[in-house]
Amino acid sequence: MTEQHFISPVYSKDISEGTVTWESPSNIALVKYWGKKQHQIPENPSISFTLSACKTITSLTFQKKTATENFDFEVYLEGERKPDFEPKIETFFKRIEAYVPFLKDFKFKIETKNTFPHSSGIASSASGMSALALCLMSLEKQFNPEMTREFFNQKASFLARLGSGSACRSIEGDLIVWGENETVTAASDLFGVKYPFPVHENFKNYQDTILLIDKGEKQVSSTVGHNLMHGHPFAERRFEQAHENLAALKSVLESGDLDAFIAIIESEALTLHAMMMTSMPYYILMKPNTLEVLNKIWAFRKETGLHIGFTLDAGANVHVLYPKTESENILKFITTELAPYCQNGQFICDEIGMGAKQLNN
Ligand code: PMV
Q: Rounded to the nearest 5°, which phi and psi values hold at 213?
């Protein structure tokens, strides 16, 4: 399949105004996407758990107008106009214009809010871009009611990817693969697909407690980080490793081997940060408390034999991953031993989710 598949016909139907609302979750990668080609095409495949509690809720209000040269939209976060968000949306609209032919025929009001605390260091780009892509697809569906659900989700993921790569993994749940590879042959560089193989009971309702270690703005954005993989001394080997880890994860997901699962995800997390530390210029996004927490997790795991593991995003926060059946003791440990390393003792309890939901028609 190529990009052509997502170019819409020019619609003859007339739609004058309306509002659509979607809530879309964040996701956490188990095998990380780090490094991209042009147009947000990933250098390597990735796989993620879709989350449930951490989400963005976006309403798109549209009103037909005479088509003009420029896009016409306003963005509101929690009811407050956010002109500083507009350049990012403008860039997104430019990137998707070829696939969404009616963008300049409407005046849009984009109203958005997140369920997680503002500036918590949790990236809202995956949930935010996927929620907006889904709203645009709901509008497109009004022009083309015959569109199948499969195409709707695929194109929503395709558009979300053009907003922020990892956002393409937030449309559906519970495990999503993005990027061509030899393990999941149905996967695409253009959009995320549901993981198609058997998954052991151990991974159902898997828990993700997000420790808010540092809520400050990142010193180096993901966009800059991805670009530093061009000419990176270890890039090629890292891209191969992502393929190997995805293949290894397939048998682990099927067998339910939690120790092997933890070894893969922790290695992936530290490799992501190792890539940052060995970029030129080099940088470190982990904070002293990130390392304190990782050591505490390792010691607790050794002492108790419980299946607590971690992964990291491009930031200082730690995602603590564990099976639901072990959550009583692990949550006690998090509250007493790990929360003191979080800013203001804050953490968010999340778990695997099934993807985005439309909130109106
Ligand atoms: O979607 P972006 O461009 O913000 O990249 C995010 C990359 C990581 O979160 C670090 C890894 C991933 O696969 O989500």
A: -75, -40
Per-residue pLDDT tens for 118-159? 766 677 899 999 999 999 999 999 999 999 999 999 999 999
**Token pair 């497109």 is at which residue?**
140
Q: Is residue 48 helix, strand or coil?
A: strand
Phi, psi of 293, deg, nearest 5: -65, -45
- Which burial class, exposed, middle or buried, applies to 356 when counting CB atoms under 10 A from its CB (0-12, 13-18, 19+)? buried
**CA 237 to chain centroid:** 24
Mean pLDDT of the chain: 96
Measured from the Cβ of residue 280, the count of other Cβ atoms closer than 10 Å reads 8
pLDDT at 361: 61
What is the 126 CA–ligand 1 centroid distance (Å)?
Answer: 8
Residue 23 predicted with pLDDT over 80: yes
Cβ within 8 Å of residue 304, ≥6 positions away? 329
pLDDT of residue 360: 76
User: Domains, the chain, ranges and CATH?
Assistant: 3-197 (3.30.230.10), 203-351 (3.30.70.890)
CB 201 within 8 A of CB 167: no
CA of 288 to the centre of ligand 1 (A): 22
Average pLDDT over residues 228-236: 98
49 membership: H or E segment, kind and range: strand 46-64
- The DSSP string of 312-356 is E-SSS-EEEEE-GGGHHHHHHHIIIIIGGGSGGG-EEEEEB--B-
Q: Per-residue pLDDT averaged across 307-333, rounded?
A: 97
Q: Tell me which residues have their CB closer than 6 angstroms to ligand 1.
A: 29, 32-34, 46, 123, 125, 164-166, 222, 226, 272, 313-314
pTM of the model: 0.97
Cβ neighbors of 240 (< 8 A, separation 6 or more) are none
Q: Is the dihedral of CA 244, 33, 4, 17 positive or negative?
A: positive
